[in-house]
Amino acid sequence: MSNINSFYNWSNSLLETDQKMPVLFIGHGSPMNAIEDNEFTKRWQKMGQEIPKPRAVVVVSAHWLTKGTAVTAMSQPKTIHDFGGFPQALFDVQYPAPGDPNLATEIQKLVTNPSLVLDHEWGLDHGTWSVVKHMYPNADIPVLQLSIDYHKPAKYHYELAKQLLSLRKKGVLIIGSGNMVHNLRMVAWNKLSEPEFGYDWALEMNAIFKEKISTRNHSDLIVYEKLNKAASLAIPTPDHYYPLLYILALQTDTDEVEFFNDKAVGGSLTMTSVKIG
């Protein structure tokens, strides 16, 4: 892919290319995945090698919940350690990827409903850096975050994301980082080491989500709480589910769907991830 500067014209607007970037929803799971070498992180590494090298990465993380929508606009976003109770080695991790104020401004121009705020305070939370550091370990690609307005319903997020579609032809990789099935209250901590252990309701909902994604039935996924009774267990709060809707909204008619890391962890979490395009 061309170097970063070639994506700009003299007015600093991103230029479209003939190549359309895929979009990814990644089940990020435990923050410990940031420093572990396991089957999930190996697949993230491989994905970073398989897809075209992006000019920038924009992540919708389950861990940046706001009132209103913001995009990080600083030149050097800080590494946020937004968790507790983990080994010091995890807190020692820094992911010094640059930001991109020009791209942030471009995104602000693209998203007209609602208006976006340029944020200079947040940085990169673990929903972003725990994944991206495996995909791009050299931290040489600009990384931005787009926040989730947690006061708005699912449909709002899906419609907002549609306005980002042109970024796919501008060398920008868009990632939603969360988990399709995410119920921390019901995690079977004593079975975390047991491979692919999932409660029946978790496996049932994971299969339903995959079927709806495969058939592009986005309308049902937007009103996920109506799918069946198990949905309330799979998604007791929508913070880790909303990033999936951002990715689905960017699917086009010609995009193929590929699932990866399709496994349950601790009974009530699934690492199931999706590549679209």
Automatic annotation (TrEMBL):
Pfam families: LigB (PF02900). Its cofactor is Zn(2+). The gene is ygiD. GO terms for molecular function: ferrous iron binding; stizolobate synthase activity; zinc ion binding. It comes from Flavobacterium profundi. NCBIfam families: PRK10628.1. The keyword Zinc applies. Residues 29-253 form the Extradiol ring-cleavage dioxygenase class III enzyme subunit B domain. InterPro entries: Extradiol_dOase_DODA (IPR014436), Xdiol_dOase_suB (IPR004183). This is 4,5-DOPA dioxygenase extradiol. It comes from the Bacteria. Keywords: Dioxygenase, Metal-binding, Oxidoreductase, Zinc. Belongs to the DODA-type extradiol aromatic ring-opening dioxygenase family. Its EC number is 1.13.11.29. SUPFAM superfamilies: LigB-like.
